[in-house]
Amino acid sequence: MSDLPVRDLVLIGGQPNIEEWADSNIWRQAKDSGMEVVKDWSSQAAQGGKELVERAMKRLMLVFK
């Protein structure tokens, strides 16, 4: 789910009828799904930051050779 655009995630979140939100299972499923998306996004952000630092270090090494 973490690869879906935010717009699609909002549409998915709006699928259960209002009555279904009274069921605690819906809330648990929404929380569990949301936590997986947050973990994936955090991992992707960390990887992106790591790659950015690696590219910057390579450029600095070329400049100071």
Q: Summarize this, please?
A:
With 65 residues, the protein is mostly helical.
Please provide a written account of the structure.
With 65 residues, the chain is an all-alpha fold. 74% of the residues lie in helices and 0% in strands. The protein has helices spanning 6-13, 24-63. The longest helix is centred in the last third of the chain and has 40 residues, at 24-63. The protein starts with 5 loop residues before the first helix and ends with a helix.
How would you spell out the order of helices and strands? HH
Averaged pLDDT, please?
85
Termini separation comes to: 44 Å
Secondary-structure class: mainly alpha
Shape: rod-shaped
Summarize the amount of helix as a percent range.
Answer: over 70%
Rg measurement, Å: 19 Å
- The DSSP helix count reads 2
Percent of sequence in beta strands: under 5%
Give the uncertain stretches in residue-range form: none
Total number of β-strand segments?
Answer: 0
Tally of separate domains: 1
Write the layout of secondary structure elements.
Layout: H1 6-13, H2 24-63
